[in-house]
Write a structure and sequence with these properties.
With about 90 residues, the protein is an alpha+beta fold. The chain contains three helices and five strands. A five-stranded mixed beta sheet has the order 4-3-2-1-5. Helix 1 packs across helix 3.
Length: about 90
Amino acid sequence: MIKLRLKRFGKKREASYRIIAINNLARRDGRPLEELGFYNPRTDEVRLDVPGIVKRLQQGAQPTDTVRSILVKANVFEQVRATNAS
């Protein structure tokens, strides 16, 4: 199964994360199938590749709880529903 989850990078105590699509059996910092965004919790900066995320969600990818909350704040699930409706 494909998961949308966070990949940690950055220095100690200055972590940032990339939102990636990856096989659920792969390790946290393993090679992703696709990088779909960026999240910096220290500044609450979020950059998303919305068309790529929508495509992965339509293919059945499951977001983790943290990624789900980031996507809800960015209204990505509404775009998925709109795409499915049309």
